[in-house]
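[SOLVED] Need 3D model of a two-part complex

Original post:
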Amino acid sequence: MSIVGTAIGVDSSEAPSHDPEGDSATVQLAMQRVAEQLRARAERSSGNAKDVLSATAQLASDRGLLKTVTGHLRNGEGITSAVHNAVGEYAEKLQRLGGYMAERVADLHDVRDRVICELRGEDAPGVPELSEPSILVAKDLAPAETATLDPAIVLGIITEEGGPTSHTAILAAQLGIPAAVKVSGIVQAAHTSDELALDGGAGMVLVDPSATEITELGERSARRTVLLSGSHGQGLTKDGRHIALLANIGSAADATKAAALDLEGSGLFRTEFMFLDRQDAPSVEEQTDTYTRVIESFGNRRVVVRTLDAGADKPLAFTQMPEEENPALGIRGLRLGMRKQELLDTQLEALSRAYRATHGDLWVMAPMVADVDEAHYFAQKVRALGLPKVGVMIEVPAAALRASRVLREVDFASIGTNDLAQYTMAADRLNGELAGLLSPWQPAVLEMISFACKGGATTHSHIGVCGEAGGDPLLALVLVGLGVTSLSMAPKKVAAVRASLAMHDCSRCQEMAQAALDSSTAAQARDAVISMADPAVRDLL
Amino acid sequence: MISKTAIVGASSGLHARPAARFSQAVADSGIDVDITFQGTGVDASSVLEVMTLGVGSGDEVTLSTANDADASTLDELVALLASDLDAE
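Solution:
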C-alpha cells in the first residue's frame, strides 16, 4: 500500500520574516526544487499526464509568484504564510476569470503545498512514485492526481473523503481502478497495518486480511472473471426483455474507445468538454465535426447527446453569467440554454447537420428540465430542425413527479440519478459528509424514479437511467423492476450489469423493486434486494 | 526603452496553454519584458501574471523592454503573440 499525505496548512506558530530577502531566496530555491521534481516526472510520463505535470512545473518556477511571495515577506509574514497568501491572490484572480482559468487553481494549490513541504523538508505531497503495484490510501485525491494514475501500478484507491459521485470516484471508474471512498479512519489504519485488501465492487476494505480472507477474495475474483467472460451481446433479462446497455462518454476519443466494446451505443454523451476549455463558444462547424465523428464511431448504434450542461457550477468563460449563491439550484442546464439561446441554437444546428450527414440513431436530450413549459420549448426547437428523437433528463424532482405530463412533450426521458438524489435529498453532491444521504438506494430516491417510470408508462415512453446507479449490477435490477428500459454507465461496467440481468426474470426484478420501496432505509433496501437476488450476483459487486 | 504593440492571435486568448508558451519564450529570450493590457503592466515571463491579465483573442497588448538593442527579440515575441498559440 502507499499512503498519500494529507492537506498541507501553514505553520501557525511561525515567526514573522525578519530577513525578507534571505527568506525570498529560500523560497526561490524551494520553488526550483519543486519545479525540477515535476519536470523529472513529466519526462517519464506521456500524453495527458505529461502536459499536466509540465504546466505545473512552469507554475512552480513562476517569477511573478516569487515576486508576490517576496512582497508578503516584506510585509512581515512568516515564510509559509507568505507562500500560502501569495498563491491565494492568484487563485482568487483565476477564480474570477472563471471557466478553464478557474480549473488551474487546483494546480496552483498543488504547487503551494509542494513548496511548503519542501520548505519544511518534508516529502512532497500528492501521489508518491510507486515502485511496485500498490493500493493507494489518501484523505482525498485531487481529480488531476487521479487522472494521471496508471492502472497498471495503482491496484486500487481508498479515500477517507469524497462521495461516490465526486469526480475522483468517477475518474477512477473510468480508468478501471477499483475504489472505495468515504472509508473513515483508513489513513490511520493504513499507517498501523502491513497489508490491505480492497474489493472495489463491494466497496469493502480488509485491514491485515487473514490468509482465508485473501483466498476468498481471490476465489470471488476468479468467479467474477468467469461470469464476465460469459457475458456478451444485448442486455436481456432471463426471460428475454431487452434492456439496452449503453456507455457514458464525454468526447470523440471516448466514443472511439467505447464503440470498440461490446455495448449497444452511448446513452449519455456529455457535450460540456467542448465548451469548458476555452474563451469562445465552439463554432457550428467544429461542433458538427465532433458530433459526426461520435455518431460515425457507433455506426447504426444509438447515440444520446445531452445538450450543454453548464452554469454557475461549471462556469463558461464566454457566457458572462453572474455568480450565484446556490449554483446547483441556479441557471444551469437548459435554464442556461433558454437564456443564451444562440448557444443552444448553434448546438442544435450542429447536431442536425451531423444527423443529415450520418443518418445515425441520434437522440437529443436537454439537461435540468423542471416542467412542461421547458420540455415543450426544447422539443419544438429540436423537432423544427428535423432531428428524429427528442428527450429530457429527469433529475429535478418536479419533472419526476409530473413525468406523465412532461413526457407528452417529448419522445423519451433519461433519469440522472446523481442529480435526482442531490435534489430529492437536498444534499450537495460535492459534500463527502453527505454521501449517505446521496445513496441511490435511498427509498425516497427510488420512489422518485418510480414516479418517473410510472409517468413514462402512461405515454409508453422510453425511460433510461444514465447516472452512476445504472452501473451497479444490483441496483440495475431494481431500476429494471421499476420500469427503466435502458441503462447507461461507465463502459467498463457494462459486462457486470449484463451478467446480472441475465440471471433474473422481469417479475423477479419487479419484486426486488417493490421490496426496496417498502424498506425504511437505504441499507435495508440494499439488504432486501441482495437477499432476493441470485447469490452469484454477489460475485459481480 | 522600446515598446511594440501586438494583437493576440490565440483563438481562445491568453489562457493557460498559450500563456505558458508565450511566457516560456520570454524567459528563454533572457531579457526582461513587460506586457501591458488595459493599463496594467506585468512581467511577461510569468505565466501567472500573463494569465491573470485576462487577455482575449484579438485584444491589443503592448510589449516593452528597457534596452533598445533588444528590438529584434521584441519583434519575435510580437510575432509569436500574433500567431495561433493554441495550435499544436
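Edit: The first strand of chain A starts at residue 2 and ends at 3.
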